[in-house]
């Protein structure tokens, strides 16, 4: 998550990445990566080691809301994310008003930081960064390291909808637009080819109906949950699906992931790829099933202690039932 900084104090958000090579608060860059005391993430806006909320350095709700969409756990309250519990690296580049808080070059530094610290997929719900070589080279570096980059087609609330927005419009980046509740393009969602690749359901802006939008996590002073619209909330659904695919096989290439997502998308509008919907609506289950069919058993899944004990009970009870079954077999009723 390269965004506005995340409030991990929310009860559904605890999936924060930790830099285990760095000791906190000793004033020393222990892992020699150029960032002092970055034991968890980095704030590229204020150039400090805390991208989350601070009394002296408040943040916008944007990233906290997106993180819920990606990683909120499957529990008995609130919401559930597309990829429950997936680890989130929090790199801040948007200021407290949700505008560009860094130079283009510093955005590039954030991208490079994420790649060098092991990120698997990027969510860049950013627009209006320039078409700039100052961070495009870092996106190319991410792709070269097999990191998939997801961004947005962008929002234009009045006029000028068919315009590219960066970083989404770079050909190496998956640009995601938003649909409304009725499988139409959302009113604000920028479109156009060749940059529009996939769509995800978010809801309309002009005729905003909360029950027809996404409910996700908000930081104080807002309610713990709320509704919002924008292509910013389409991209994380695609990033979440990629996280699920990579949890089956971590070594999948960027091209392979893009091909699967394009081929499994639900075609909307004019047949095949078109300017409003790209390849169509993201289809999470079809993409994950296709990945599973290619790679079989998940490479990193393990049985939890609970699953192990359930399995043991099943085995024991099966053996316990065999003599009973045999006895029944031996004394058939006439
Ligand atoms: Ca460091
Ligand atoms: Ca340190
Ligand atoms: Ca800060
Ligand atoms: Ca179509």
Strand-helix topology:
Elements (H helix, E strand, L loop, with lengths): L1 E2 L38 E2 L18 H10 L19 E2 L11 H13 L4 E4 L8 H12 L3 E5 L21 E6 L16 E6 L12 E4 L7 E4 L6 H14 L5 H11 L19 H12 L9 H26 L4
Parallel strand pairs: 1-3, 2-3, 4-5, 5-6, 6-7
Antiparallel strand pairs: 8-9
Low-confidence stretches: 322-334
CATH C-level name of the largest domain: Alpha Beta
Q: How do the helices and strands follow one another from N- to C-terminus?
A: EEHEHEHEEEEEHHHH
Within CATH, the superfamily of the largest domain carries the name Peptidase S8/S53 domain
Query: What ions, cofactors and ligands are bound?
Result: calcium ion
Number of domains: 2
Broad shape: globular
The name of the CATH architecture of the largest domain is: 3-Layer(aba) Sandwich
**Share of β-strand residues:** 5-15%
Find the count of extended strands (DSSP E, 2+ residues).
9
Sheet with the most strands: spatial strand order: 4-5-6-7
Structure, explained:
It is a single chain. This protein has helices spanning 62-71, 104-116, 133-144, 235-248, 254-264, 284-295, 305-330; strands spanning 2-3, 42-43, 91-92, 121-124, 148-152, 174-179, 196-201, 214-217, 225-228. The protein has 334 residues and is α/β, with parallel strands linked by helices. The chain folds into two domains: 2-295, 3-Layer(aba) Sandwich (Rossmann fold); 303-334. The strands form three sheets. A four-stranded parallel β-sheet has the order 4-5-6-7, sandwiched between helices. A three-stranded parallel β-sheet has the order 1-3-2. It has a two-stranded antiparallel sheet with strand order 8-9. Helix 1 (62-71) packs parallel to helix 4 (235-248) and helix 4 (235-248) packs parallel to helix 6. The protein is globular and about 60 Å long. It starts with a strand and ends with a helix. Residues 322-334 have low confidence and may be disordered. It binds calcium ion (4 copies). One calcium ion (CA) is lined by residues 22, 29, 31, 33, 35, 38.
């Amino acid at each position: 998550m390269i965004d506005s900084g995340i409030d991990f104090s929310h009860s559904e958000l605890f999936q924060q990445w930790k830099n285990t090579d760095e000791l906190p608060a000793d004033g020393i860059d222990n892992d020699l990566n150029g960032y002092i005391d970055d034991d968890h993430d980095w704030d590229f806006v204020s150039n400090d080691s805390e991208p989350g909320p601070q009394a002296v350095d408040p943040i916008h709700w944007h990233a906290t809301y997106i993180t819920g969409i990606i990683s909120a756990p499957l529990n008995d309250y609130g919401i559930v994310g597309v990829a429950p519990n997936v680890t989130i690296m929090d790199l801040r580049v948007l200021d407290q008003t949700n505008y560009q808080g860094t130079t283009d070059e510093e955005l590039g530094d954030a991208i490079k930081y994420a790649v060098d610290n092991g990120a698997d997929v990027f969510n860049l719900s950013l627009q209006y960064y320039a078409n700039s070589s100052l961070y495009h080279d870092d996106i190319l570096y991410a792709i070269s390291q097999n990191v998939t980059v997801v961004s947005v087609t962008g929002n234009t609330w009045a006029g000028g909808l068919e315009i590219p927005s960066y970083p989404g419009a770079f050909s190496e980046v998956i640009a995601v637009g938003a649909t409304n509740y009725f499988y139409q393009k959302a009113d604000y969602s920028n479109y156009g080819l060749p940059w529009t690749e996939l769509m995800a359901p978010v809801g309309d802006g002009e005729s905003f109906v909360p029950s027809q939008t996404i409910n996700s996590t908000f930081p104080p002073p807002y309610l713990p949950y709320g509704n919002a619209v924008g292509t910013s909330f389409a991209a994380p659904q695609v990033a979440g699906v990629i996280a699920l695919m990579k949890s089956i096989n971590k070594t999948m290439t960027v091209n392979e992931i893009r091909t699967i997502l394009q081929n499994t998308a639900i075609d909307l509008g004019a047949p095949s790829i078109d300017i409003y919907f790209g390849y169509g609506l993201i289809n999470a289950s079809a993409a994950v099933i296709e990945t599973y069919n290619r790679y079989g058993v998940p490479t990193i899944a393990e049985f939890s202690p609970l699953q192990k004990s359930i399995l043991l009970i099943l085995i024991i009870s099966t053996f316990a039932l065999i003599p009973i079954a045999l006895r029944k077999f031996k004394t058939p009723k006439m």
